[in-house]
Amino acid sequence: MSALATLLKRDLARFLPGTASGGTLLPLLFFMAVAMLYPFAIGPNPTLLAQTGGGVIWVAALLAAILPLDRLLASDVEAGFFDQWALRGIAEEMVVAIRLLAHWLSFGPFLMLAAIPASALVGIDGETLRIVEIGLLAGTPGLAAIGVIIASVTVGLRSGGAALSGLLVIPLAVPLLIFGAGSLSTGGEGGLALTAAISLALVAIAPFAGGAAIRAAREG
Amino acid sequence: MEACRLTATDIACRRGDRILFAGLSLALESGQALQVAGANGMGKSSLIRILAGLLRPFSGEVERQGSIGLLDEKPALDEHQPLGEALAFWSALDTGSAPLDRLGLAPLLDVPVRYLSTGQRKRAAIARLMGQEAQVWLLDEPLNGLDTDAVALTEKLVEDHCAAGGIALIASHQRFELKGMARLELAEFAT
């Protein structure tokens, strides 16, 4: 069990915003910047902003989740960490599962916090904010899982990996977006429940898909 | 140290469309050392990775008994962290401790890994390898970037490792001084 704790500690030190060794606030600033720009682009129409603001928060959250992908796994493969873990009998699946947890912790809760000031910027009311927050709680683990899967599939790519992984994440994230942001217009619990269900399935698949992709890249 | 063994039977290695070598067999018992020699691109690193179990051989079988330690061109140390913390990550996973003073690393523990020179990185990787206390050492170009003193030290460390009952397999095109070490010319198995 201590191997798990050691790996998680290293991952958190690398990914949490504000930690000395490179975790970054940039995705959060990006998220806030989108929320800030939106009213400028749409114009000061309170009804229109209130109707569309929740959806914009969702799109901004999705894009912010893509930003850290290029350094999620590739650097560890290049530096030989996965080789050394494999020799010590630490399965790729376990490393990827821990990485998924650390990746989510480094942006999910912070996005939920940032959604509060963002909701003021796009002018949505308290009830809508509540649904957005529950939706983010249900949806961001799924976004993190998609991110980890794509990051592990693009691990072997020498160049252009960052842009390509961003492009690959978007279609996979469509179901989460439809049900997550869709729950805003219907106000329904059903949409949120479906978002959570998709997230759960993705989180369950991610360690196995990711582990297999990293092993395949090693053979290449 | 418990008995260890490393055997490869009739292995071949394919990279892309080329068969790099074929029909290679070797058997190493506790205390033995072997240098795999060959020019660049002969497949020394691929052989090491096959023996480590990180690469599937195109044909043939590898049997390992005992824990495997790998030293190659990738140090597996966090670039942005001070050397001390980067090594502490591995010592939390491994059992042993590395002789940092002997390797001349003690004054460097506060220096971020990205500022270390090639030779210092290599010595840091040797420290990681020693901390692992693996029985079978697979060393891919262990002398690259090392100065004369560090070369002598590395040879001594490998000698001690074998004297303690470990296995060492050294892939290098350079001279590696070690008493009683066998030599395998990879060129003989090239196709």
Automatic annotation (TrEMBL), chain A:
Major localization class: membrane
Entry GO terms, CC: plasma membrane
Origin superkingdom: Bacteria
Record keywords: Cell inner membrane, Cell membrane, Cytochrome c-type biogenesis, Membrane, Transmembrane, Transmembrane helix, Transport
GO terms (BP aspect): cytochrome c biosynthetic process; cytochrome complex assembly
Membrane topology recorded in Swiss-Prot or TrEMBL: Multi-pass membrane protein
Compartment(s) where it occurs, according to its Swiss-Prot or TrEMBL record: Cell inner membrane
Molecular function GO terms recorded: heme transmembrane transporter activity
Membrane spanning residue stretches: 20-42, 48-67, 104-124, 136-157, 164-184, 190-214
Family to which the UniProt record says this protein belongs: Belongs to the CcmB/CycW/HelB family.
Protein's job: Required for the export of heme to the periplasm for the biogenesis of c-type cytochromes.
Protein name in the entry: Heme exporter protein B
Originating species: Alteraurantiacibacter aquimixticola
Upper classification of the organism: Bacteria, Pseudomonadati, Pseudomonadota, Alphaproteobacteria, Sphingomonadales
UniProtKB/TrEMBL annotation, chain B:
A single MF term (Gene Ontology): ATP hydrolysis activity
Tagged with keyword Transport: yes
Keyword line: ATP-binding, Cytochrome c-type biogenesis, Membrane, Nucleotide-binding, Translocase, Transport
All copies of domain ABC transporter, residue ranges: 6-190
Pfam families linked to this entry: ABC_tran
SUPFAM superfamilies per UniProt: P-loop containing nucleoside triphosphate hydrolases
GO biological process, one term: cytochrome complex assembly
Keyword Cell cycle: no
Gene3D superfamilies tied to this protein: P-loop containing nucleotide triphosphate hydrolases
InterPro entries for this protein: AAA+_ATPase, ABC_transporter-like_ATP-bd, ABC_transptr_haem_export_CcmA, P-loop_NTPase
Signal peptide (residue range): none
PANTHER family: ABC TRANSPORTER I FAMILY MEMBER 1 (PTHR43499:SF1)
Protein name, UniProt field: Heme ABC exporter ATP-binding protein CcmA
Organism of this sequence: Alteraurantiacibacter aquimixticola
